[in-house]
């Protein structure tokens, strides 16, 4: 299952392998605490014995509550890159920053577990199957199931009330449409809390058309012409709702939500007419979409925009900035991933190397970024 017996000391990281505590099911590393002393400024830390000189006795006295070292008058305290007040297992935060490097030594996903103040254990997780069927029992009221965590091997969901605007990007054929169908199952199970679902699909409505007869709350739009007026109506509704909220002293719309699902946002953005009047109407549509994204969330309107590419040609940067939740399936390069997440430094997986059905999800409500496997609808009866 893993090559723990072949694991070298991670010399690039401040950890050493503790062989006597490790087993094939659990490998333990120990953090090499640096010798430091704490000066008067709270935000600075320096070498405890700079240039071999002896430390100030008063400073030495202050740090005696730290972890004792191997030699007299030597103590171990936290380095400045992850210092926090009275940390118990602060080294775990530092460890998690390097988990991709550590995981490169291992054949399967692992979770991390603290052993004590110095040691941390890696516990391998069994590899997930290529296809994880969507179980009806996972669908729940007041929850939106997003996917299956590759790290914890558990379903990952967000509360329905906290689920806000979502951007979904990814190369064709890697799972965007399947995710959209799973998302629709979540909305259907919560339909009592939804006023209307507008589905905009300018690719002919093949993917979303199956849902249009399930409820009179669901409306499918397959043509470009009705879209500008729809967005104007939704902005007017936002204005009306915000006025009601102002009068009642509320900060969020307390009643039913409205979902606007756009399957391939680029199809709208690229539908620029050639005549002057058509161009003006199209420019106003794009401006109205930005306005709706900026003001709609508080008024109970959630936008779910799906597109193959996150470039400005396919979806404007001002709209992207308003879509708090973000999902990326496989993209051609990390440069495209930066257009989605702003930075790829702390992502739990390399977006350009994701397998079919895998995606990275940024949860805008918790600022958490997770590596997930999408569910597959194997039982087609779920769709009805």
Structure description:
This protein has 384 residues and is of the alpha/beta class. The protein folds into 2 domains: 121 residues, no CATH class; 252 residues, Rossmann fold (3-Layer(aba) Sandwich), CATH 3.40.50. It has 9 helices and 20 strands. A 10-stranded mixed beta sheet has the order 11-10-19-18-17-12-16-15-13-14. The radius of gyration is 26 Å and the shape is globular.
Number of domains: 2
- Architecture of the largest domain in CATH? 3-Layer(aba) Sandwich
User: Average pLDDT value?
Assistant: 77
For the record, what CATH class of the largest domain applies?
Alpha Beta
Say how many strands there are.
20
- The radius of gyration over CA amounts to 26 Å
Intertermini distance: 40 Å
Structural class: alpha/beta
Strand order in space, largest sheet? 11-10-19-18-17-12-16-15-13-14
Shape summary: globular
CATH topology of the largest domain: Rossmann fold
Relevant CATH superfamily of the largest domain: P-loop containing nucleotide triphosphate hydrolases
Strand content: 15-25%
Tags for this model:
2 domains, four-stranded antiparallel sheet, 24% helix, 9 helices, 384 residues, ten-stranded mixed sheet, alpha/beta, 20 strands, Rossmann fold
């Amino acid at each position: 299952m893993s090559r723990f017996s072949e694991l070298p000391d991670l010399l690039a990281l401040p950890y050493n392998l503790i062989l006597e505590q490790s087993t094939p099911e659990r490998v333990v590393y120990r953090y090499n605490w640096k010798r430091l002393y704490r000066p008067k400024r709270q935000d600075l830390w320096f070498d405890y014995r700079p240039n071999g000189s002896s430390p100030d006795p008063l400073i030495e006295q202050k740090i005696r509550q730290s972890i004792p070292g191997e030699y007299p008058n030597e103590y171990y305290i936290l380095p400045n890159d992850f210092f926090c007040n009275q940390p118990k297992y602060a080294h775990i935060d530092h460890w998690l920053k390097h988990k991709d490097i550590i995981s490169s030594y291992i054949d399967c996903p692992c979770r991390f577990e603290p052993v004590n103040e110095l040691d941390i254990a890696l516990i391998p997780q069994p590899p997930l199957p290529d296809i994880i069927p969507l179980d009806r029992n996972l669908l729940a009221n007041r929850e939106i199931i997003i996917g299956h965590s590759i790290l914890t091997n558990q379903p990952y969901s967000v509360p329905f009330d906290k689920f806000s605007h979502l951007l979904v990007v990814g190369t064709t054929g890697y799972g965007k449409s399947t995710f959209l169908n799973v998302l629709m199952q979540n909305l259907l199970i919560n339909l009592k809390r939804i006023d209307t679902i507008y589905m905009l699909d300018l690719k002919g409505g093949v993917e979303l058309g199956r849902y249009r007869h399930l409820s009179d709350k669901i409306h499918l739009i397959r043509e470009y012409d009705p879209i500008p007026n729809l967005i104007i109506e939704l902005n007017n509704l936002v204005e009306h709702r915000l006025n009601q909220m102002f009068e009642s002293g509320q900060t969020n719309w307390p009643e039913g939500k409205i979902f606007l699902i756009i399957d391939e946002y680029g199809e709208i953005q690229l539908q620029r007419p050639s005549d002057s009047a058509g161009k003006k109407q199209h420019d106003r549509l794009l401006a109205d979409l930005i306005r709706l994204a900026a003001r709609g969330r508080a008024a109970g309107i959630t936008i779910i925009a799906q597109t193959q590419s996150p470039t400005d040609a396919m979806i404007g940067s001002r709209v992207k900035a308003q879509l708090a939740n973000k999902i990326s399936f496989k993209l051609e390069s990390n440069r495209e991933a930066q257009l989605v997440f702003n930075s790829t430094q702390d992502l739990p997986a390399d977006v350009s190397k994701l397998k079919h059905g895998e995606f990275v999800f940024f949860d805008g409500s918790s600022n958490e970024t997770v590596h997930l496997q999408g569910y597959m609808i194997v039982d087609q009866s779920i769709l009805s």
